[in-house]
Every structure is written in C-alpha cells, then in structure tokens.
Amino acid sequence: MTENWEQQTKQMIEQGKQSAVGLVSGGEVIIDADPEKGFFRVKLRNIQPPQAAPQITTGFCWLLVNGAAMLNLQVKQHIERQGGDSNE
C-alpha cells in the first residue's frame, strides 16, 4: 500500500508541474511549524516572476482548504485582498 501511495504522489507532483509550466520559474517556500501546538506558518520568498506570488499563495490556500476537508476539519480563513479588503 505504501508503495502505491508513493507512486500516486509522484504522479500527482508531475501532473502539477506540467500544469504550472510558465507560471513560476523559481522561489522558496519557508515552513515554520510547531506540531505539538498544531501551528504552522508558510512564507513564499523570491517568487519569480514576482507577479505570480498572489496566484501561488491562493493555490496553497486552496490546497490547505481541500486537505482539511479530506481530514473532516472545519476551515475558517482570513484572506487579505488588494486594497485592504478581506475575505473571512
């Protein structure tokens, strides 16, 4: 089962890379986590091109929301929009 899971994960990663061609050419993701407290924070840095950062950030939020749904977790989110508006 683990081998099958690893293969499926590799396939999903490759599909993601193919669909993201041209969106971003590099950058970093910094993860700060404290598993005991159930806390983590993610920071994108040096995204190239810089104008892709909002789309990448929104994509990560989408992944988290859907991952939480798979774990039967309720999601509450605050997303700051351009001009200081927020979506809660």
Describe the overall structure.
The structure is a single chain. The protein has helices at residues 2-19, 53-70; strands at 26-34, 39-48, 79-80, 86-87. It has 88 residues and is α+β, with helices and mostly antiparallel strands. It has a domain at 44-88. The strands form two sheets. The protein has a two-stranded antiparallel sheet with strand order 1-2. The chain has a two-stranded antiparallel ribbon with strand order 3-4. The N and C termini lie far apart (39 Å). The model has no long low-confidence stretch (mean pLDDT 88).
Specify the structural class: alpha+beta
Estimated helix fraction: 40-55%
Number of strands: 4
Computed over alpha carbons, the radius of gyration is: 15 Å
Strand order of the largest sheet: 1-2
What is the overall silhouette? globular
Low-pLDDT stretches are none
Percent of sequence in beta strands: 25-35%
Please, how many helices?
Answer: 2
| Sheet with most strands | 2 strands, antiparallel
Average pLDDT, all residues = 88
* End-to-end C-alpha gap: 39 Å
Q: What is the string of SSEs from the N terminus onward?
A: HEEHEE
